[in-house]
Amino acid sequence: MSRGRGRAVRVEDGKHYRRLGIFIAVSLSLLGAAIFVLGGREWWQSSFTFETYFNNSVAGLDLGAPVRFRGVPLGQVTQILTSAATYERDVPLNRRREYIVVRVKVNVSAAEAAQMRRDALALSSRGLRAQTQLAGITGQQYLALDFMDPKKYPPLEFEWTPKYTYLPSAPSSVGEIVSKAQTFLASLNEADIKQLGQNLNRLVSDVDRKLAELPVAELSGSAQGVLANANATLVKLDSVANRLDSLVGNPALGQTLQNVAGLSARLRTLADNGDLDRLVNGMNEAAGRLDVLLGDNQYDVRLIVQDLRMTAANLRALSNNIRRDPAGILLGGPPEKIQLPAGAP
Length: 345
Hints:
The protein is of the alpha/beta class. Helices cover 60% and strands 14% of the residues. A 7-stranded mixed β-sheet has the order 5-6-2-3-4-1-7.
């Protein structure tokens, strides 16, 4: 009995350990899958890292800031260091460059990473530069990659061997403006500042004098005249608007519009049916025939016109004679003079 009970206990213990092992294996598998989904896959993903150096401030550029090539997202900033702490620990203080080291990580395939390493030197010689730029109006900076004039923006000088592929940089536009402003202010001496203050005072005095010389009363009168003319113009415009309202409200206008619409509809019907085209063609044929007729009987037409002119002249003379002597026209001429006998009373 004791042997059977011991064998049963060992079987139960084996099943318990087997279940525990399966549970641990499944848990580890789920944990690994979760880590891979939440970001652990980047451990096995190939990447390309390069670094660039700046000789001015990079204030506003933070870790994780985006890196873009002509606006296209490419990667992010992973480290912002100083050359003194990274490469110049054993260099004397007076010989340190004190550059700002910015490292960028680009997540690409292994083949693309190898190609970037091969092309980095050629791209740098063609003018590929890294430059900090502002992202909109937020003031946050990002790293922009673009091609620039390599003679205007040569690589910075340094004596160490970069840990990653080196890409030259170019000063930001904001930094250039600030640097030029600082240079201008530093170039001013006390005499220049005093002269500038005197010029400003003279300018203010001239402006005050010109303002005092302005004919305020005349300008005010002119302004009032302009306002009066404007008011009169507005009154006239109001009158015109009232007339337009009355014209629009007149029923005759509506009837006229209806008539025009009816006429337009009829003309459209004629045009659609082809009657208008036939009428125009008939007029063209009639004009052609008349032109031919006039050309063939040109001499006869000229004689007819001359006869008509002579007839008109005769009628005009007859009209003048009737006006002067209407009786003569009716009786055939003036009466003959009667000779009275001698001695007659």
